[in-house]
Design brief:
- The chain is mainly α.
- The protein is built from 14 helices and 8 strands.
- The strands form 3 sheets. The chain has a 3-stranded antiparallel β-sheet with strand order 1-3-2, with helices on one face. Strands 6-7-8 form a 3-stranded mixed β-sheet, covered by helices on one side. The chain has a two-stranded antiparallel ribbon with strand order 4-5.
- Strand 4 (330-331) and strand 5 form a beta hairpin.
- Helix 5 crosses helix 6 and helix 8 runs antiparallel to helix 9.
- The protein is elongated and about 215 Å long.
C-alpha cells in the first residue's frame, strides 16, 4: 500500500513538474510573441514612414518635371508663334511690294499711251508741214526755172558735169595720199574691224538659278527629314544657311538659297543623311561640317586643275578658290566655269590672230566673271567687283581693264578689253550654249517673225543673231519713212507684252526704193 502511494505521489510529482514546465514555457512564449508583435509594429510604422517620405519625394519630382515640360512647351509655342508672325509679316510686305509694282506698271502704261498719242499728233503735224514744204519747194523751183531760163533737167545736167570734173581733179590729188595713209593704218584698222564684227553677237546677262531639287526614293523619308516638331529640318537650315521646302511635290525636296555652294552643301548633306538613316540634330551638324570641309577642298582642287589645264600660273590662292566656286554657279543654264574656260580659250585664239599677248588674254578670259561668285559687296556690278578683287591681288593692268570693261561699266584702254567682251558674247549668245530646247528655240524665232509679219506693209522678216535682232523689210509704196519709226516701236511693244525671251531684242525696220528699167 505504501508502495502504491509512493508511486502515486511520484506520478503526481511528475505531472505537477510537467504542468509547471508547460506553464513556464507558455508564459515565455507569450512574452516572445508580445516582443515580436511590438517589433513587427515598429517595423510596420517605420516602413509606412519611409513609404510616405518616398511618396512625397516622387510627387515633388513629378511636379518639377511637369513644370519643366510645361515651360519647354510654352517656349516652343512662343517661338513657333514668332516665326508665324514673321512669315505673315513677310507675306504682307511682299503683297505691298507687288501692289506698288502693279501701280507703277499701270502708271508707266498710261504714260506710254500718252506718249504714243502725243507722237501720233506730232506725226500728223509733221506730215502737214512736209506737204506744205513740198508745195513751197515746187513753187521755188518754178520761179528758179523762169529766172535762169533753163529747165530743171538742163540745169541738173550742167551741174552734174561740173561736179564730175571737180571730183576727178580732187580724186587724182588725194588718191596718192589715201594709199600712203592706208598702208600705215591698215593693220590697226583691220584689227578694229574684226573686233567690231564679232561684237555684233553681244547679249545681256540672264537670270540666276536659286533652287536645287533633291530627289527621294519614297515620300516616307520626308517625315524623318522633318523630325519631331520640325527639329531636324530647323537644324539643317541653321547649319547650311538655306531654306528647305517640303511640300506636296512627290519624291522631291526643294533646296532654296542664293548661294550655290550652300545649296550644294545642303544637297550632299541630305544625300549622306538619307543614305545613313541616322537623322537627328547632332548627326546633321556633324555631316554638314564634314561636307563643308570636303567641298572646300574640292573647290580648291577644281580651281587648281582649271589653272593647270589652261596654262595659267601665279594665281593667288583666293582667286583659285573663286575659280573653283564657278563650278557651282550657272547663268541661264550655262555653267559659269565652263563658260569662263571657253571664253579663255577663245580670247587666246583671237589674241594670237591679232598679235596681242595670248597669255594675258587667256588670263583675263578666265577671270572676267569672277565677281559673280564673290560674297562681298553684292550691290556692285560683277564686272567692277571682279576688277576690284583682282586689283587686290596685283593682276596686270590690262587684265583689270578687260575684266571691268567687258560690260562697258568703264572705258576700254587696251585692245585686250574688246577681245574679252567679244568672246564673252560669243560664248553666251551662240545657240546651244545655254540650256534651251531646240524645238522651243526654233518656235520662239518663228513666233518672232510671224508677229512682225502681221503688220500692214511688212513683206519679209528675219530673226538673226540667235533671236536677238529682228530685221523687218517693208514695202516702200505702203510704208513711208516717218511710219517706219512708229512700226518699230509698235513691234517692240508687242514683243515685250506677249513673248518670253532672254536679254533684249533689237528691231530694225528697212525701207528701200528700187527703180528697175530694161534696155532692149
Amino acid at each position: 500500500m505504501d508502495v502504491v502511494l509512493l508511486i502515486v505521489a511520484a506520478i503526481a510529482g511528475l505531472v505537477a513538474g510537467v504542468l509547471l514546465d508547460r506553464f513556464l514555457l507558455a508564459k515565455q512564449f507569450n512574452k516572445l510573441e508580445e516582443a515580436s508583435r511590438m517589433k513587427a509594429d515598429a517595423l510596420l510604422r517605420e516602413a509606412q514612414a519611409q513609404a510616405e517620405t518616398l511618396k512625397k519625394e516622387k510627387l515633388l519630382e513629378a511636379k518639377a518635371e511637369l513644370q519643366d515640360l510645361r515651360t519647354r512647351q510654352e517656349n516652343e509655342y512662343r517661338e513657333r508663334d514668332q516665326k508665324l508672325q514673321a512669315a505673315e509679316q513677310r507675306v504682307k510686305q511682299k503683297e505691298t511690294t507687288l501692289n506698288q509694282k502693279y501701280e507703277q506698271t499701270k502708271k508707266e502704261q498710261q504714260q506710254v499711251e500718252a506718249v504714243r498719242e502725243s507722237l501720233a499728233e506730232q506725226a500728223e503735224v509733221l506730215n502737214r508741214r512736209l506737204e506744205e514744204a513740198e508745195k513751197l519747194r515746187n513753187q521755188q523751183l518754178q520761179q528758179l526755172e523762169k529766172i535762169a531760163g533753163l529747165t530743171r533737167e538742163e540745169a541738173r545736167n550742167q551741174m552734174v558735169e561740173l561736179v564730175k570734173d571737180e571730183a576727178r581733179s580732187i580724186a587724182a590729188a588725194q588718191s596718192k595720199e589715201i594709199v600712203e595713209t592706208a598702208k600705215m593704218t591698215a593693220n590697226r584698222e583691220a584689227k578694229r574691224i574684226v573686233i567690231q564684227t564679232i561684237q555684233r553677237t553681244a547679249a545681256e546677262n540672264a537670270i540666276e538659278n536659286a533652287v536645287s531639287v533633291f530627289h527621294l526614293e519614297n515620300d516616307e523619308v520626308k517625315g524623318r527629314i522633318i523630325g519631331r516638331e520640325g527639329r531636324n529640318i530647323r537644324a539643317l537650315e541653321a547649319a547650311t544657311g538655306v531654306e528647305i521646302i517640303v511640300d506636296d511635290t512627290p519624291e522631291a525636296i526643294i533646296i532654296s538659297g542664293f548661294d550655290p555652294v550652300r545649296r550644294e552643301i545642303a544637297r550632299l548633306s541630305l544625300h549622306k543623311l538619307v543614305a545613313d538613316g541616322r537623322i537627328h540634330p547632332a548627326r546633321i551638324e556633324e555631316v554638314v561640317n564634314k561636307t563643308t570641309r570636303l567641298l572646300n577642298e574640292e573647290i580648291m582642287e577644281v580651281g587648281e586643275r582649271t589653272a593647270i589645264d589652261l596654262g595659267i600660273h601665279g594665281l593667288h590662292p583666293d582667286l583659285i578658290r573663286l575659280v573653283g566656286k564657278m563650278k557651282y554657279r550657272s547663268s541661264y543654264g550655262q555653267n559659269l566655269l565652263q563658260h569662263s574656260r571657253e571664253v579663255a580659250n577663245l580670247c587666246a585664239i583671237m589674241a594670237a590672230e591679232l598679235g596681242v599677248n595670248a597669255k594675258l588674254a587667256k588670263r583675263a578670259g578666265l577671270l572676267h566673271d569672277i565677281g559673280k561668285v564673290s560674297e562681298e559687296n553684292p550691290e556692285m556690278p560683277h564686272a567692277l567687283l571682279g576688277m576690284t578683287i583682282c586689283q587686290r591681288y596685283n593682276e596686270h593692268p590690262e587684265v583689270l581693264n578687260a575684266i571691268g570693261a567687258h560690260h562697258d561699266e568703264i572705258e576700254m584702254t587696251s585692245l585686250l578689253s574688246p577681245i574679252v567682251q567679244a568672246c564673252d558674247a560669243i560664248s553666251g549668245a551662240r545657240p546651244g550654249a545655254r540650256r534651251e530646247i531646240v524645238e522651243s528655240y526654233m518656235k520662239r524665232l518663228k513666233d518672232l517673225e510671224n508677229l512682225a509679219l502681221k503688220y500692214p506693209g511688212v513683206s519679209k522678216t528675219y530673226a538673226i543673231q540667235a533671236g536677238r535682232e529682228l530685221r523687218v523689210i517693208v514695202e516702200s509704196d505702203e510704208v513711208s519713212d516717218q511710219q517706219t519709226d512708229q512700226l518699230a516701236f509698235d513691234i517692240s511693244s508687242q514683243i515685250q507684252n506677249e513673248m518670253q525671251y532672254p536679254g533684249q531684242i533689237k528691231i530694225t525696220v528697212i525701207r528701200e526704193k528700187r527703180s528697175v528699167a530694161f534696155a532692149k
